[in-house]
């Protein structure tokens, strides 16, 4: 029996019973793969089911309001994924009559669709012969085929994609890809691989040479950038809280957020986000409390320390005068609004906001 056949037989017998493996369509596979990016399976499962209940077909997602999509995404973080999924759905309905294109290069033209996602949807949902390459697959292939170079970066992606393409089982590419990912998630683990349970144990070059725990080699070249975010809770006399929205900021580009001041803690020159801004002027003009709280958070390659400072306005005219005075500084897409405490979590659906929630009152 070939290694590919051994892997497939193992998968059919041992695969986890997961909702996104049932009634697979290109749309449902696409949604599941986007959700699984940077999110653990157990955390995404209830949100996946709820999302498909609210948007059962790609046409439903395409015609939805963006705020409804972002609200349904709450708890998954990295909201640009949801926005790109929504844009991609609109492209699919407008340009492809809602049908996912079977050609890889055409699929890559859809917003939010990268090489991994395109290959996953095409193989798992449509049976097209494309091999996927994610973190789990990279680890399995590095060990089985003894890939001893750093797996982080474009050169390794190219090498490992070639290996994955050559190892693909053309008889059932979708199940083969799922099997490799399942093997990496449950057996070929990073620190404690369960080699004796692996269907590829007799074909694994790293196992034969006693190098299983040494591979894959991962060398990160760039450390995280440390930043402080000072969130400003501004309450009007009715107890409503000010939220703002603009794509012209480093974080929270697609959602409402508390006004905030970013301070980049590095020796490099300040970015535009570090320079005086509307929020900085807001902080200077009104009497805010000392910094409250101090929670840690990560967004992409940024290590964030977030704080809250609060102030209350006795008269709405105080803020209106300030806003009129500084209006020239605002970007063209600037939006602002006053929202009740009960609606903050839905309007500002960030896991960081959830961590700071106790300081809003």
How does this model look, in words?
- The structure is a single chain.
- Helix content is 43%, strand content 12%.
- It has helices at residues 3-14, 26-36, 41-54, 58-62, 66-72, 80-96, 104-107, 115-125, 135-144, 154-167, 173-186, 205-208, 278-285, 316-326, 341-347, 351-356, and strands at 225-235, 241-245, 260-264, 292-299, 302-312, 335-339.
- A hairpin with a 2-residue loop joins strand 4 and strand 5 (302-312).
- Helix 2 (26-36) crosses helix 8 (115-125).
- 33% of the residues are buried.
- The model is unreliable at 266-276 (pLDDT under 50).
Spatial strand arrangement across the major sheet: 3-1-5-4
Give the overall pLDDT as a whole number: 89
Oligomeric assembly: single chain
The N- to C-terminal Cα distance equals 65 Å
Report the biggest beta sheet as strand number plus sense, adding barrel if it closes. 4 strands, mixed
Radius of gyration: 24 Å
Structural class: alpha+beta
Instruction: Give me the count of strands.
Output: 6
Unreliable stretches? 266-276
| Helix and strand run | HHHHHHHHHHHHEEEHEEHEHH
Strand content: 5-15%
- Large-scale geometry: elongated
The number of helical segments is 16
Helix content: 40-55%
Characterize this entry briefly:
The protein has helices at 3-14, 26-36, 41-54, 58-62, 66-72, 80-96, 104-107, 115-125, 135-144, 154-167, 173-186, 205-208, 278-285, 316-326, 341-347, 351-356; strands at residues 225-235, 241-245, 260-264, 292-299, 302-312, 335-339. 43% of the residues lie in helices and 12% in strands.
